Amino acid sequence: MLVPTIVVLSSLLSSAFAGPHARLKHPKSRPPKTGLIEVLSASSSSNVAFSPVSVAPKTNIFISLTNDEAASVISFLHNQTELNLTAAADAGAWDNAIEVVDLVQPNKTDALEYLDNDGPIPARYAVARIAFGATEEPYLQDFIVGPLPISNASTYESLDWATTSGSAKIRNYNADDDLLTQWNFDVTATVADIVLDLLNGTATGSDDDDFDIWGIDPLWMEEIDGEQRVILWNTYWRFPSDEDAVFDGETLLPQGLFFKSDITGRDSSKWKVLGWLYGDIFYSTTEEFRNAWKSPDFIKYELNLPGEWIGSDQTGTHFPADNIAPPVAVQPNGQRFSVDEEQKYVEWMDFSFYITFTRDTGLRLFDIKYKGERIIYELGLQEAIAHYAGNDPVQSGTAYMDTFYGFGPYAFELVPGYDCPTYSHFLNATFHAAELSVTHRNNICLFESDPGYLMQRHSSSNYLALTKNIVFTLRSVSTVGNYDYSFDYVFALDGSVETIVRASGYIQSAYYAKNNDYGYQVHDALSGSMHDHVLNWKVDMDVLGTNNTLVKHKVAPAVVKYPWANKTRSTMRLERERIESEDDAKLSWAQNGADMFLVENSDKLNKYGEPKGFKIAPSRGGAGMYLTIQDSPNLLKSQGFAKHALYVTKQKDTEVRSSHANNDYDPGNPIIDFEKFFNSESLNQTDIVLWVNLGMHHVPHTGDMPNTVFTTAQSAFIISPHNYLLNDASRATRQMVRIDYNASGVQLVKEFGGKMASGVVNVTAQQPNFWNYEGDVAVRKFPYDPLHPFNDTESIV
Amino acid sequence: MLVPTIVVLSSLLSSAFAGPHARLKHPKSRPPKTGLIEVLSASSSSNVAFSPVSVAPKTNIFISLTNDEAASVISFLHNQTELNLTAAADAGAWDNAIEVVDLVQPNKTDALEYLDNDGPIPARYAVARIAFGATEEPYLQDFIVGPLPISNASTYESLDWATTSGSAKIRNYNADDDLLTQWNFDVTATVADIVLDLLNGTATGSDDDDFDIWGIDPLWMEEIDGEQRVILWNTYWRFPSDEDAVFDGETLLPQGLFFKSDITGRDSSKWKVLGWLYGDIFYSTTEEFRNAWKSPDFIKYELNLPGEWIGSDQTGTHFPADNIAPPVAVQPNGQRFSVDEEQKYVEWMDFSFYITFTRDTGLRLFDIKYKGERIIYELGLQEAIAHYAGNDPVQSGTAYMDTFYGFGPYAFELVPGYDCPTYSHFLNATFHAAELSVTHRNNICLFESDPGYLMQRHSSSNYLALTKNIVFTLRSVSTVGNYDYSFDYVFALDGSVETIVRASGYIQSAYYAKNNDYGYQVHDALSGSMHDHVLNWKVDMDVLGTNNTLVKHKVAPAVVKYPWANKTRSTMRLERERIESEDDAKLSWAQNGADMFLVENSDKLNKYGEPKGFKIAPSRGGAGMYLTIQDSPNLLKSQGFAKHALYVTKQKDTEVRSSHANNDYDPGNPIIDFEKFFNSESLNQTDIVLWVNLGMHHVPHTGDMPNTVFTTAQSAFIISPHNYLLNDASRATRQMVRIDYNASGVQLVKEFGGKMASGVVNVTAQQPNFWNYEGDVAVRKFPYDPLHPFNDTESIV
Tell me, which GO biological process terms does this entry list (chains A, B) (predicted)? Predict the structure, then answer.
């Protein structure tokens, strides 16, 4: 857009810039040439000295359980004889054992009393996830244990109030892992000759096995002869071998042979093979399969074999210029944010927040404040679905809910110089599972960076004004199996907070035979199995208090008759709509970006009468955010949060999470069914929570071989002030310059105390030492000896 | 997504990572600890030494006219007496004068013959845009002049074949700029007392005027008494004043008083005032307006006055940490791309391309090759619309088409250390207008950078593999009036090319009275006038030749009965659809990103049978790409390219551009009406062109005060290989590391010759000197003296 009054050269030249009807600006008086750089010490300059070490203003009430807390909870539970617990290290399938202990996030009402009103610090409680195996009908159950520290006042009870099912129990239809492994080998033994012929390998349980056997996730329930049966479809995956054995390419090596098992009950002698599938032909018995295989017209498909192609090392002709080191960021003048390492509290410019880390969802942020006011109470991942499709039952039947595996356990140490700048500030994080406390060293990084474009610029005939865009990033990466999910929370000087997820790593792929409706062929006998990623975030915004409303401002076409026009005009208008009930609270981003979603406090108007708020909008990606399959037979009642782009619900202390790590055990009877959060409650000026999905439809092509790359596999949303302040917040930074000039040259360089990086940097000394990569520290919790916390675990560090 | 076989710690710890049915991977043999960093000199290493200076393999046939060429064209035209030209410097409204000369881009057929088949170099032709003022019906017309250099063989003719109207002529209904300026002052004089009362200022043409007067763009045609009349609505804008006069904030100072003029014809004594508007009340005569103003119930609205609020300097409390310099990127080991400065040819890794620069659209890229094969013949901006709406006729009537003003003239010098890294490679660019050749110094920058996240990563129980994401950016910024458009073309190691536009600068705003259906109130008497930005790009892709097809691959829900299932299953499928006719070629990005658009060569299959292609997808933003108003009364037949997200047409040498810089003169009778490109032609395996829109719906709020910021005002699309190669192209880089480890620690660090940045960098010495900002060099072209090219223009450099 342009106002034709701006001309940079003198009026003599102005005719060069536009057509005959350009309207020229009157020449303006220009500042005198001073020949000096004017460095302002802004009058409003703060006198507070900066320290990179901060002290949290309040105790971090969200912080993960300490090792001692976890140990005391575990010990307490072992003392409850009715639980009949066995130490996790000794427990078998028929024992009861503690799987996970973690913090029960304090109720928001209590937390706000503490944070805002000098109320008492909320009592700490733990959740203990216990697997009950000592029964014909094994199950898992969550218990709340506390208050902590454990004392005579401490009790435990089923954590039913945090569920939608009314019970924190869920059945485990697949408790006998050892039996199942043996079953798979036994079934394979009945067709060992066929497997050898078709797949050229063996799976017997020996060390030189060629195949790994696994299949659908979650398991299916199927009615057979009027009875609900537990069904598992399995397939054969080849192990990488030879020189490429180090590479984690097993998910590129599906072999195309499938078998269906009825694994109902705990007596594997009653389990049954219900059929075989090869080349898109189903054989309902092993005998039928064998007969077909023997017949002369049996069609054999190509082998999908490992090789150099599954490796991710450098390959192909490299570029001469690539012998030279590329540009790198340096931080010669020191860290510009502060961290309270003990309290996991961070301050950067006008932002502050607390960090925590959970087994299920990894890194989480609480009490994000901006200019002293809370804007987000809670920000963190809830669940990640990867839903596949294919002509074979294993791809068709796969719909991972990754919190089952957990984002905490797989959030490994980061590599400076690659994962994060070498000058980053690294933090550790700990989770507690199977009666071990495992500390990931340096698995969270915090750093400032210049994303390579400005925050603000403007030039005119008189001046240029330029403001740097320095952002602050909090990052962790969880490698949940074949995929590496990188999570960024990026804070910017304009008050925006961007949440980014990127995916790299190996795809899970399909055997190629007759799968071309479900993916591209990406190698000799391989199909890039199509799948949807949906990652759900909880975004509990509090804009100037908890009484907020989600409003939708639509840029809408309109036909309007104006007083100054004889005829109607086709134009557009801003239409304001309030989402006032949970009945209207399942939302999508509009076609062509026509809708803006704002969280506003309708009672807090700025001086111009506009409600103060924040906008939430997609910012990167665009390849999809919610599930294509709206009624998945795999996910059943566990996909309620993944059917729209975003949702808004009334905040309740009983509706803390949109999913549950145990839903995967029985997705038709989930512990948390997000759909049940919707019960027509008013969302008008009340405490609301947004549930926002990121993701992508991923149809892997040859460019995903061997690994998907982050550049085209990313998705993000951004929260930014909207009529919240009276101007652009980035005006507060010193990292800007104004250059006044005229035809005689530069007249004034105006700086604002924002120094450019200076000094001499030994870049060589900043090179990372990759030999420092360490791995995790594990502390055994039961039996626990605080004086020897590494009891029995040092060897596995 | 996860395959549950990956466990990073030893099997002892494995139970910590998942629930009871986790299926554990067989332990793998691990590489021996070598204690050495293995640096590979890849067997496929190229022996070609790298030089940052390249020699273009072919002459840049797209390069802008040289100053000599422009001068000779101008001289040639002045010799054509029937044109009756006056030197631009002397020309008035009643003269004929040359406005612009530029290159006529060679026909693609000729260009490919030269580039690919050693055909003759295409003859060079210029386009000359001439304003014919010496007539009662003034007009503009484009002529093609050539071949160049000018010789006896050179001729000129109307450039009709590059139009859809059949004529390169367009009427100019507003040729008398001087008369109009005087008209505005004369009209104002009739109500000077009212203006002083309502707006507290004057507009008389004197140096101390308070107001600038301008209005709608383009002009309207309105039928009055059966005759087409030329209509202009004007309003008053206040000049910034006092200490904030340097700031370009006039577009923040609309005053809320409007008048409508009939300016038909060239005799301003016949022009008429058709009414006034104030406070949303229309007065059809000046007398009516005066009477109302005199009446006691006349409502006066608040003044919109300048002040510190329009300045963009540092304001507000700054942060203690901001006294420290932020991180900065350095390039200690030298430039890794090569440039042929004379031919404007660039090579980076596996990419090469030619640059040109035009008056209308600024920077353009031609013949983008990837791994030696052309993938994009032409990539560049076509047009940028900014369409406003409002309760007043000026906002409602404003729909800028910015090529009218031109992106070339306003693509000013960039500031190292702010606009681009200090280590960037800068290029100059020249345009020719009003018989001047103006060279922007350092207005294009090229640089490598690390965008702050990896290209690839994967970790397993055995290893980490990490690849850097080093990108190469080509950038220019055009400040077209109040807005600064930043254009990036970003090349990445995975073969992707991203086109990004960002907007900063001042908004054009509206007076606040009764405008709240069209924008937020953003200051005392100011509304942030809502508007749509639509920027159209030509993307002429050539995938392995010119026979290409656009295909749409849909991720579609499906209900399927599989041979292995008793019941149908709700699932999804990849549906492949070909866009085979221009009848189906107006396209939008699907809701939830469900469609992938691919340009493929259906006859060139990869070894797995998939057609080789490139995907095109939105990558940033998401706030809209096409016009909300589908039938704008302002744009009429000139908005054809802006009604959908993307279009595909058959390539024709006569359909070079989707818009024309002169369409703005008469948008109802445009020289190029993009809709006319659509005439049912086959798009099946033929040379196709994509026309892709970026943009946003911009409803400015207080955060746009004083300037819109780039962070939330950006939009991009990315083109990336899709089944084009057999694997991820980034595997060719040396900038990767593999770390093999086990419970005993790191066993092997494998590098690939990709050095980390090294050496000692004097960061202080890299600080930019803002006093070096220079501005432009202008060379007068007529009368032209090659020995004294700065003839009469030195003073304005």
Answer: amine metabolic process
Q: The domain containing residue A452 runs over which residues? A: 339-732
pLDDT score, position A742: 86
CA distance A309 to chain B (A): 8
Same domain, B535 and B600: yes
Residues of A designated as active site:
402, 483
Which of A4, A181, A707 lies nearest to residue B728, judging by beta carbons? A707
Residues 6+ apart with CB under 8 A from B507: B251, B252, B482, B528, B529, B698, B700, B704, B708
Q: pLDDT of B518-564, one tens digit each?
A: 999 999 999 999 999 999 999 999 999 999 999 999 999 999 999 99
**A214 contact residues in B (CB cutoff 8 A):** 3-5, 23
Same domain, B630 and B680: yes
In chain B, pLDDT over 90 holds for what percent of residues?
84
Q: Do A300 and A405 fall into the same domain? A: no
Nearest partner of B607 among A510, A523, A706, judged by Cα: A523
Residue A797 has pLDDT above 80, yes or no: no
Asked, for residue A328, whether it belongs to a domain, the answer is no
The stretch A223-241 carries a mean pLDDT of 95
Is B142 part of the annotated catalytic residue set? no
**pLDDT at site B779:** 64
The DSSP H or E segment spanning A329 is strand A328-330
| Domain limit, last residue, from A310, A325, A359 | A310
Euclidean distance between CA atoms B234 and B256, whole angstroms: 10
Q: Do B21 and A174 touch (CB under 8 A)?
A: yes
Q: Is B402 a catalytic residue?
A: yes
Judge if A293 and A345 occupy the same domain: no
CATH of the domain at B403: 2.70.98.20
Which CATH number belongs to the domain containing residue A191 in this structure? 3.10.450.40
Calculate the alpha carbon distances from B32 to A249, A734, B25, B35, B36 in Å.
20, 53, 20, 9, 11
Query: Is residue B23, in this structure, part of any structural domain at all?
Result: no
Nearest to B323 among A131, A710, A753 (CB): A753
Average pLDDT of chain A is: 91
- Asked if residue B587 lies in contact with residue B634, where contact means CB atoms within 8 angstroms, the answer is no
The answer to whether residues B292 and B198 belong to one domain is yes
pLDDT, tens only, B626-678: 999 999 999 999 999 999 999 999 999 999 999 999 999 999 999 999 999 99
Q: Per-residue pLDDT for B759 more than 90?
A: no
Give dist(CA B564, CA A277) in Å, integer: 7
A64-74 pLDDT, tens digit each: 999 999 999 99
Distance CA(A467)–CA(B505), nearest Å, equals 11
pLDDT in tens, A667-684: 999 999 999 999 999 999
Cis peptide before A27 (omega within 30 of 0): no
- For residues A506 and B2, what is the distance between their CA atoms, to the nearest angstrom? 10
Residue B361 and residue B241 in one domain: no
CA distance to A405, B30, B31, per residue, from B743 (Å):
21, 10, 12
Query: Has residue B419 been placed in a domain?
Result: no
**Cβ separation B767–A758 shorter than 8 A:** yes
Q: DSSP E strands: which ranges in A187-253?
A: 211-215, 220-224, 227-238
pLDDT tens figures, A701-721: 999 999 999 999 999 999 999
Residue at A194 is within a domain: yes
Contact between chains at B319 and A483 (C-beta distance less than 8 A) = no
Last residue of a domain, one of B697, B725, B753: B725
A242 falls in which pLDDT band (50, 70, 90)? confident
- The model carries a pTM of 0.94
Two tokens, residue B336: 């890794």
Query: Are residue A369 and residue A459 in the same domain, yes or no?
Result: yes
How many residues are recorded in chain B? 797
Together in a domain, B500 and B621: yes
Pairwise CB contact (< 8 Å): A735 & B326: yes
| Residue B157, token pair as written in the block | 């003719």
Count of domains observed in chain A: 4
